[in-house]
Amino acid sequence: MPSDEEILRIYESSKGAIETVPKVRVSSREDLAIHYTPGVATVCNAIKNDKSKVFSYTGKSNMVAIITDGSRILGLGNIGPEAGLPVMEAKAMLFKKYGGVDAIPICLDTQEEEAIIQTVKNLAPTFGGFNIEDIESPKCFRIVDRLAKELEVPVLHDDQHGTAMVAVAALINAMKLAGKELTKIKIVINGAGAAGLGIVRLLGYMKIKNIYVVDSAGVIFDGRKENMNEFKKEIAASTNPEKFQGSLMDVVDKADVLIGASSANVFTKEMIQKMAERPVVFALANPVPEISYADAKASGAFIVATGRSDTPNQVNNVLSFPNIMRGLLDSGAKRVDYDLLYEASKALAKCVGKDLGPEHILPSPYEPKEMANVLSSVASAVAASAVKSGNTRHSEVDISAIKKNAARIIKRSVKIEKIVIKTQVPQGA
User: Fold this and answer.
1) Are residues 297 and 375 in the same domain?
2) Which end of the chain is more exposed for a tag (fewer CB within 10 A), N or C?
3) Domain around 406
4) 51 catalytic, yes or no?
């Protein structure tokens, strides 16, 4: 890992992680006449007469806005929109590299809920989808739920939807290795923020009931008064059926799975030792997990996953958001629902194939062949779900074409990356 000084030098040299480039040739008078004036007026009039044609004649069908207010950036907290821009640029880069999606970072100079909602709605004519990113909870939930109801394009909340999708895929494979049935296990989730709620909602869709969620006030239960909001009340209504009260240390007793969506170093060896036989621990806090991979294994954990790239089983959202969005855009989906996310989780889990093992429960995001398979499998699963549920503006969707396009996207990404590395020079050199 480079030093802080080296990282800053790299960023200063590249002046950010993304740029825009033309998709069409403009090298002659005729080219300019077609793609600018007067030819562009023909396209404008066609869209004026039929607004749905904007998806056919412009980049809207592949254009996504990444929206943040800078209120909860990574593990850094409320650092503001300018300081959040590098993260949003990185997200845009990953959308393009792994999903072929054109994404634009939009960092808003407001943290007012209604202002954010109205701004996104005002941007809707330009974009085929939105990715809500790094907005504090519970505000982010209200924003996403409102936009999902009021827009005709999908609104993906990566902190919620993306994390849930990857975590459940990892859980499917972990339980397969542990020889346990998902519907019969005890799951403890530490953290009731975006990731925690997303995982609860997806597990609830899967009819898993034996779930316990813990926040700073202890186990959430129906009727609890302390440190509650409307979303924690939703969690209370769908989890902890016997209304168990206590701490994380209390509730982890005999748990099959412990998922951390919280903060650094809050899991102890004693907690893991209290868990059921062949315990599974997902310590997903970044950059420092709830417990290190080594300590969790030394405590007897059968399978351990973290968000880090330097240990096995990285639960990395790059396995989710580019692939989900690719399927949403290609199918013309209007919204993100939990059937779609469950199908995406199952597809991602299957991508591991014969290599499945305690230290390999998810595909590697660093292998182009694996990522091509992931994009093909997940995007087509998302598209098929959208079509099946009627959640699309298209009457027909060619799923086989989506699969074929995936391989071309990853191949093109690798080729472009090689060209960039070969030719890149500092700006102004």
Assistant:
1) no
2) C
3) 318-423
4) no
